[in-house]
């Protein structure tokens, strides 16, 4: 029987938070901002998954995408664990590896084979799950920028984390197009000569 733990501990009331290993740092620290944004990214993906399930029941491509997104959330939790650890990590601890980056590349390549070539810039939108995935992409880019800044400041970020976040933003973009194409709901193409509607 698992032991029940309390949600609140009061230890963060002084504006600090604990890292894996026991050390404490300010909640405003760049490291906390970085893995907090990774958590936000996973939440955005969770919203996309919830909407995907409600709109695409019985669609094989939607089920395949949901499986990829579930794996992505697990990978992001592993990534957050890495960022929340300052000391040398155990070889057995969860971490992002080159295989995870390669998996995203395979997923992108597979989805792109089902899509027409993209000849215009597109705006986020289309279906609701597609729009949520585009929103997740922008959160992913913010997490990547923060991870790069953290690497510049502290130098304790693995290259695989940076590669994973970079590749994940591409995957989210591709998956958004992929589900929109599946549902038959196109994105709004960028029109540089767009005129305002009549009043």
Attribute tags:
single chain; 199 residues; mainly alpha; Hypothetical Protein Ta1238, Chain: A; two-stranded antiparallel sheet; 5 helices
- As a percent range, the share of strand residues is 5-15%
Rounded to the nearest angstrom, the radius of gyration is 19 Å
Q: What gap, in angstroms, lies between the N and C termini?
A: 65 Å
Q: Into which percent range does the helicity of residues fall?
A: 55-70%
Q: Name the CATH class.
A: Mainly Alpha
Query: Based on DSSP secondary structure assignment, what is the total number of beta strands?
Result: 4
H/E element sequence? EEHHHEHHE
Report the oligomer: single chain
CATH structural architecture: Up-down Bundle
Strand order of the largest sheet: 1-2
What's the overall geometry? globular
Q: Which regions are unreliable across 5 or more consecutive residues at pLDDT < 50?
A: none
Mean pLDDT: 86
How is the main sheet built?
Answer: 2 strands, antiparallel
Structural class: mainly alpha
CATH fold name, please?
Answer: Hypothetical Protein Ta1238, Chain: A
Identify the CATH homologous superfamily: Cobalamin adenosyltransferase-like
Total helical segments? 5
The number of domains is 1
Write up this protein.
By secondary structure, this protein is mainly alpha-helical. It has a single domain (26-112, 124-186), classed as Up-down Bundle (Hypothetical Protein Ta1238, Chain: A), CATH 1.20.1200. 59% of the residues lie in helices and 5% in strands. It has helices at residues 30-55, 60-83, 98-113, 128-154, 159-183; strands at residues 16-18, 24-26, 122-123, 188-189. The longest helix is centred in the last third of the chain and has 27 residues, at 128-154. The radius of gyration is 19 Å and the shape is globular. The chain starts with 15 loop residues before the first strand and ends in a 10-residue tail after the last strand.
């Amino acid at each position: 029987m698992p032991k029940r733990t309390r949600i609140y501990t009061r230890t963060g009331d002084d504006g600090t938070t604990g890292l894996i290993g026991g050390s404490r740092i300010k909640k405003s620290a760049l490291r906390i901002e970085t893995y907090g944004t990774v958590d936000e990214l996973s939440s955005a993906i969770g919203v996309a998954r919830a909407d995907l399930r409600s709109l695409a029941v019985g669609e094989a491509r939607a089920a395949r995408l949901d499986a990829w997104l579930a794996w992505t959330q697990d990978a992001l939790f592993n990534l957050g664990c890495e960022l929340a650890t300052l000391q040398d990590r155990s070889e057995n601890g969860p971490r992002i590896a080159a295989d995870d980056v390669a998996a995203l590349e395979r997923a992108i390549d597979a989805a792109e084979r089902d899509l027409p070539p993209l000849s215009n810039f597109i705006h986020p939108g289309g279906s609701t799950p597609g729009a949520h995935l585009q929103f997740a992409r922008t959160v992913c880019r913010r997490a990547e920028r923060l991870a790069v800044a953290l690497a510049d400041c502290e130098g304790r970020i693995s290259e695989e984390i940076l590669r994973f976040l970079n590749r994940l933003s591409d995957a989210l973009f591709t998956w958004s197009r992929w589900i929109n194409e599946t549902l038959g709901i196109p994105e709004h193409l960028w029109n540089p000569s767009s005129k305002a509607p009549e009043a």
